[in-house]
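User: Please predict structures.

Assistant: First:
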Amino acid sequence: MKNKKSFSRRTFLTGTLTTGALAITPKSLRSNEDIFSYVTRHGPSSGIAKLNGNENPYGPSQKALRAINEASKKSGYYVHTSGETLRSMIAEKNGLTTDYIILSSGSTAALTNIALASIKKGHILAPDLFWDSTANLAAGISQNKLKRLPSNIKHQIDLGVMKNSISKDISLVHITNPNNPTGSVLNNSELKEFCREVSKTCTILIDEAYNDLTDNPKSSTMIPLIKEGRNIIVTRTFSKIHGLAGLRIGYMIAKPELIKEIMKFGIIGNWTTNHAGIAAAIASYNDKNFLSHSKAMVNEGKEMVMEAVKKNGLSALPSKANFIFVNLGSLNAGKFKASMAKRNIIISGIYRNHKNWSRVSMGKINDIQRYVNAMPEALEEIS
């Protein structure tokens, strides 16, 4: 049941934004790329509903902002002690020692190192749809390749098919859980069984950027398998629920010997981060109030989008992340993206050859309402 506060806010937004959304900025965007002409120095300008980056616009938290202000005064120095503090916090929370943890610039730097280290030894096996930027980068400079499993009708990762596809020339299995762009989450028990078995023959990477948005983050993570000594890597980031995307702090958890091998393929660690980001990460790591509020806003936004999807005769995949993958039926996601951009609403476009699937990220509730209000007209325009 919706609470009264949520209902009244949506009712107000529906009434005001339906008539006023297009009048907020002097002219509308022609395409998603044009957003970069309509940004302030530090983010989207007023009137732009940016719903394409899986960010948390409610961050940084107040605790993080105070920490940033203080820490930035020492930005003339490289990060050292504060980085060790954050590593210790992560280690303590997960029952590990700090040699199992390495910090990086977002999780992207760690993922890049992992891909480069793995592609030298063999192919990377992954689903058809996943966050593939770092794996693609590595495959582009190697004779070894990124091998993708074909998508099924529900765009779910079939662990049985994946297991049967592993051969001696596979060096890394790359899984994003919850997955991006689908938002789907794997069954915890099945994934643990898969990881325990497959990690005997090759390394498994679990990108857990969105783990804190699942119903039960503690049971969804594969970090306990690392404690068992398994050949598994988990990456995390402060860019999502913590609201620190622009501060670029992430980390990797793995056996110490595996971390040492991966570090040969790029420079990561404390000193590649920044004081403001580390201070914000420390302040927000255990900020339960902020994390709960952020998660509640994401869930409210997803509920709004799912209602709109159904109302417009469409369908979408159930999501455990901060975005929704919408099935546009016979319509083209690239055209839908352009139609929304004309209304100053920025969403993602086509993923690979799945031309009728469109991803929308959660943002501030008023921006989600603008997306909801614009959907009927945008769909009509491209029909």
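Second:
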Amino acid sequence: MLTNETSVLLRAIQRAGNEIAKLQREGFTAAYKANHDPLTTADLAANQILQEELLGCFPHDGWLSEETVDNFNRLHCKRVWVVDPIDGTKEYILGIPEYAISVALIEAGIPILAAVFNPATNELYHAIKNQGAWLNHYPIKCNCSAQMKLTILASRTEFANGDWNSFAEQNVIKPMGSIAYKLALIASGQAHATFSLGPKSEWDIAAGVLLVQQAGGIATDQYQRDFTFNQLHTRVNSIVASSQEIFPIIYAQIKTEARGVVYA
């Protein structure tokens, strides 16, 4: 049932969200990693809170976080927490409310519990395998209505680069920040689909994948392969997510329009 794990996770993610909201009001510092991704004191504060709360209650679980040096002992753990303390740090720095904290509990490579929290909008999503998905504790479902034009959430960077131009005639394209938040929005039916044909990290998508699946949708890579998490190499090649009814339409568009392009 994961009752205890769910309670601890929701408490921890809200505590972390309150802390990064406080830092956004009162001030934070930012630097850049070797790969040029931004890193703020808010990322580190959220990571510390989540690690203390989750591993404090479940000390035998493994840990994989964007902001923690990887400990490969996780590969031998029965369960592993996969964490992005702030997915959408660029948006967080700019004050754009399209970032989120993303946490998934993985067992045998599969997400069994997940939460995505956007403290700027006070949207708390969570899902439990074989039990459902919720937004602020109300059940959610993917949008399965096939309209003349589908609403697709796109990466702001990819959109600015023109990667979505070939999809714009058939669909309504909405640029959006965090991929974890985009997946949560798909799970709650606020858009039809999202996809990114470039590499992502496990912590970007693990929680969102379970949200979409438990809301009646499909989330795979661009070759329709299911994800297996807690891998030695933590990058995945792409992600495509929508309701089951919309997925064949989206996949057909990708095959037609993308023509093998791999996005940066």
